[in-house]
Queue: 3 jobs
Job 1
Amino acid sequence: MKKNILIIGKKGFIGSNLFNFIRKKNLHTKSISIENFKKFSIISLSKFDIIINCSTNNNYVNNKYQSKNDYDLLIAKKIKNLYPKLVIMSTRKIYKPKFNISEKDQVKPKCNYTKNKLKSEKLVSKILNNRLLILRVANIIGLPKKNKRKIHKTFSDIFFDEIKKGFIYNNKNNYKDFISIKKFCEIVFNLIKYNTHGIYNVSLGKKIYLNELINWLNFYNRRKITKIDIKKSFNNDNFTLNNKRLMNKIKTSNNLNELKKECLQLSKKYFRK
């Protein structure tokens, strides 16, 4: 596979991990900020085959939709008459939470961020058509990255923050769907390799009970931890994403044992550093 890839959002959790993963595949990969992208000439952009946007901003996440805050739309407009395909990050939260959500299931965005993401998907799709790949991603597990500009916190970010306080929440009845950052990067790479477009759920596709996941992440912690029962009002939007369309396309392994192994490695790196 010979492709020139541009990743926008070089300091973020997803962008930095994607850059490191794809670069190791001996592909020509460049990582920049959204500010530098705005300065790129049309001639410079025409040299890339794939553009992956991993950047966003606080106004887009927290406020009602305004096109000036939509980086996906900004990029799409700039490359409209060029060759590159665009990959954008969306979220599983645009769906109504339930078990086994497919790409055709009901969307029900509740917060400004999810409403904005759904609008971005539609606007960018009209501009780029089959030059667009939309990834509706489940919760990503990875080692926390120190970044003062971090906008989104992953489940593992929250876990490692809470564990410093000496307690964790007891989530015995709650489950969600997860994917490790390593597996996420592998999936994105394979989707690019297969020249994919359209909408894909990116997840493990299985129920993962939060207590089980927490036990994996806490495995190498030798400090005594108190378990606190969660309140009834706690956000328990249990869900799994149906990833059959994705798995049929890229034909790769994606199983619970791989996720467990990644969580144990994260635990070892964090608690034995």
Note: Residues 112-128 form the longest helix (17 residues).
Job 2
Amino acid sequence: MSQIQIQTTQNVVLSFAPASVGDRILAHVIDWIIFIAWFLIFALVHSSMGSFLSSGKIGMVFFFVIMLLPVMLYDLLFEVFMNGQSLGKRAMNIRVLALDGTPPTLGAYIMRWMFRLVDTGIFGSMVALIVAAVNGKGQRVGDIAAGTVVVKLKQIVSLKQLNQEKNQENYVPMFLEVSLLSDRDVVTIRAVLKKAKDENNRLLVWEAAQKVKQVIGVQSDIDDMKFLQQVLQDHTYLMTVG
């Protein structure tokens, strides 16, 4: 599957790999295991409160609010409040991004959620699988409509593992999210910093910093130049330990 590339007005190019169909299937399976566990919990609660919940409107409201509504809103709420990840996506280390590399808007998340019925409801997951397989960016119908894509994140090394390393044992990375950047992105950032220093181009540094923040999903108030330098240091460390 090809890399997705983003080019800014200052010719800063960032790229990332779409999640594979297999990763998305496994994430979906994990989410369904969570649904099944939720149904079982509901069944146990219902059986323990049988006579009360079996009565007319109370039972219907309980069934809808406690069992169906959380399942219906699961993908939307988790992706909105967990930075583009359901529990299944987090387990598979994949995440939803907008096609320009920024976090999706609320409207984009809602659009993806609304099209889930087309992708996975009417014909099972057949439509989603076919569209994602033939689409060069691995998008299902909901992604195409919302202008989003699910990307594969690199494995993040835990702080516990980092502290156990013999080399650079006193170094603690500030931004673990830099693992989202590809090697090509890092080369680009280095080139941008060199060009900015040679030309004293603060605009180039600012735009590069903003794009990197959007791609890795972090906010920082430190100077843009220092931010990019910190990103390079953190990336180098995370890619060399373990």
Note: Residues 131 and 140 are 5 Å apart (CA to CA).
Job 3
Amino acid sequence: MRDTWPLLDKIPFPAIRRGRLETLQINVGYRCNQSCVHCHVNAGPNRTEEMDATTADLVIEFLERRRVSTLDITGGAPELNANFRRMVTAARDIAVKVIDRHNLTVQEQPGQEDLAEFLAANQVEVVASMPCYLQDNVDKQRGKGVYEGSIRGLQRLNALGYGRERSGLTLNLVYNPLGPSLPPPQAELEADYKRSLSERFGIVFNSLFTLANMPIQRFGAVLLSQGEFDRYLDRLQHAHRDENLDDVMCRSLLSVDYRGYVYDCDFNQMLDLPLARNGRERLHLSQLRDEDLADNPIRVAGHCFGCTAGQGSSCGGALKEAAE
């Protein structure tokens, strides 16, 4: 797989700095039951990297010590990590909000039959990958049969109250473009999703998040192989909006890999660009128990235009209303 970093490193991006830490996003490993074309983590069934119990304990300690308000758990399929449920319950015990970056079909993996019930019992916010409301597009991006499995997963979550008014159980969906294009306006696409999924399957959800595909890892290699890399980066740069810089997720989020090393965001993690501070080039979460990162410079390069192009893109979807 060809590396896009040498190309991205040559592209300047505006300097930005960190604000107050609000979210600890942890990648608990790269093992996944799917292998998606757009995956910036290059996750799949054959990946073996996994967060161990000692690092999971450190995450829990850090949350309580630093009074971080949100724990955002991603992967791979995070639920396949042996420490996933323990971290969820420990975080909820200290009133930390928990987000699960969920692929829906993992519910049908052996040993995960009660996963939906576990998430509901702990009031975990589910952010579920659903790159389209049409079957052909989903199966093309994520594999044959994924669409039908995703629909079944959404129906299980709905049956427990997820996505329904006044249930207290939040279900958000995530859209990624199929190829090298920017996401359409989030509000309009959300309306299309809600109408189609409701009419065809009776499915309801809270919000749709639109995310741009990052030109790194698997998707970046595909762009290079198809001769589309430069064109896509040019598109991102020309769609950049300075006002999105105020709200990019790296200002308030700290990304942690399965070994406990820290990064400004999950994308930097996948590019192996560790958070730097005071001359230290690679920091571990254990070194930040009492250290405030506010105003620390954020490591940036060409891939960062993926977060500031058009409406902007973050773990919480678009940053701004669609530009006129």
Note: Residues 5-308 form a domain with the TIM Barrel fold (CATH 3.20.20).
